[in-house]
């Protein structure tokens, strides 16, 4: 059985769906503080929090867990700056709880939903796995701490972990059943689509004077379906006895804020007013990850890399679920 912690969230639920379709027995463990029960489309579900070590212990005692996928993290950069202790508590202490129960139960395969925020301000584009790690906010710092803890657990307990670092997950499942429903929403594509739906008056563009072709920031968007596939490839590698590793995941190219808005106008056929605002502190001009290592070692291949496809699947979800999951 594969335990997916945080499996009711945006990326976790897509991974749970694909695990079920691939024939894996899957168990979702989620507090539903930010996830949605309706998003869990496969396997069993247990309501629980990673801060509750007794609850976690019960899950491992009552189920034969082969591997763990960990998505249960707070992930808003701004919020992490405002309340760093909450982020270190949930992300770091919560993960320590999970790892302790795993070690006590003899479970030694772990996949971490990490982040390219561990790099901070990039020294080169595209970003490589061995580039300097200098996170500029508590969210990125917390994920780097977890990666360092995993390295210690491998040496001490033989735990094998794969950490997947990625930037902007986007899009929605082709079935239209599950998609992105964050509260509050901070991601660009769903915010742009909320404007297209008339739920927002305009989209703000933070900074128009970056050293990019159109002056707006460039980011690497990876379709959530491709992201989930990569987690399953990582799982297969660990189950086959491959060693732990760290991989970047992306599309290998970036799209600017203006490109996203232009493409959204084309996909939706609707007007999307914009407001030009000043730069946000700490926003790099360009963030694009190299996935060469994942392609070579895991067999990862983005199948939905086109921006229009990413936005079209997201639009299908948001148009049909303007209120999200309505829970």
What's the arrangement of strands in the largest beta sheet?
3-2-1-4-5-6-11
| Alpha carbon gap, first and last residue | 28 Å
Tally the beta strands: 14
Number of domains: 2
Q: Write down the CATH topology of the largest domain.
A: Rossmann fold
Report on the architecture of this protein.
The chain has 327 residues and is an alpha/beta fold. The protein has 2 domains: 2-170 and 221-249, Rossmann fold, CATH 3.40.50.720; 188-219 and 252-320, Alpha-Beta Complex (UDP-galactose 4-epimerase, domain 1). 39% of the residues lie in helices and 17% in strands. It contains 10 helices and 14 strands. It has helices spanning 10-21, 53-62, 77-82, 84-105, 138-157, 188-196, 224-239, 257-268, 292-297, 307-320, and strands at residues 2-5, 26-30, 44-47, 67-70, 109-113, 160-166, 168-170, 203-206, 218-219, 221-223, 245-249, 255-256, 274-277, 286-287. Helix 2 (53-62) packs parallel to helix 4 (84-105) and helix 6 runs parallel beside helix 8. The longest helix has 22 residues, at 84-105. It is globular, with a radius of gyration of 19 Å. The two termini are 28 Å apart. The mean pLDDT is 95.
């Amino acid at each position: 059985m594969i335990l997916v912690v945080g499996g009711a969230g945006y990326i976790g639920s897509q991974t749970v769906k694909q695990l079920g379709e691939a024939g894996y027995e899957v168990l979702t463990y989620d507090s539903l503080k930010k996830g949605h029960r309706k998003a869990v489309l496969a396997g069993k579900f247990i309501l629980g929090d990673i801060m509750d070590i007794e609850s976690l212990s019960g899950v491992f005692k009552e189920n034969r867990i082969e591997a763990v996928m960990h998505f249960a993290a707070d992930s808003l950069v701004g919020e992490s700056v405002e309340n760093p202790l909450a982020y270190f508590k949930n992300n770091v202490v919560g993960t320590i709880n999970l790892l302790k129960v795993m070690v006590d139960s003899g479970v030694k395969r772990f996949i971490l939903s990490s982040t390219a925020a561990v790099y901070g301000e990039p020294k080169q584009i595209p970003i490589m796995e061995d580039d300097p790690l200098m996170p500029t906010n508590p969210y990125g710092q917390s994920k780097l701490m977890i990666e360092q803890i995993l390295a210690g657990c491998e040496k001490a307990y033989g735990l094998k972990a794969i950490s997947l670092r990625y930037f902007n997950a986007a899009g929605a499942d082709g079935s239209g059943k599950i998609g992105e429903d964050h509260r509050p929403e901070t991601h660009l594509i769903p915010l742009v689509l909320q404007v297209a739906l008339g739920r927002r008056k305009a989209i703000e563009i933070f900074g128009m004077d970056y050293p990019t072709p159109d002056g707006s920031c460039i980011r690497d968007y990876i379709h959530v379906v491709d992201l989930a596939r990569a987690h399953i490839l990582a799982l297969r590698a660990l189950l086959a006895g491959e060693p732990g590793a760290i991989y970047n995941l992306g599309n290998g190219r970036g799209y600017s804020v203006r490109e996203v808005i232009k493409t959204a106008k084309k996909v939706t056929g609707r007007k999307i007013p914009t407001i030009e605002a000043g730069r946000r502190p700490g926003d790099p001009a360009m963030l694009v990850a190299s996935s060469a290592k994942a392609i070579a070692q895991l067999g990862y291949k983005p199948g939905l890399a086109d921006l229009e496809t990413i936005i079209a699947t997201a639009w299908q979800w948001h148009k049909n679920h303007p209120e999200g999951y309505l829970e």
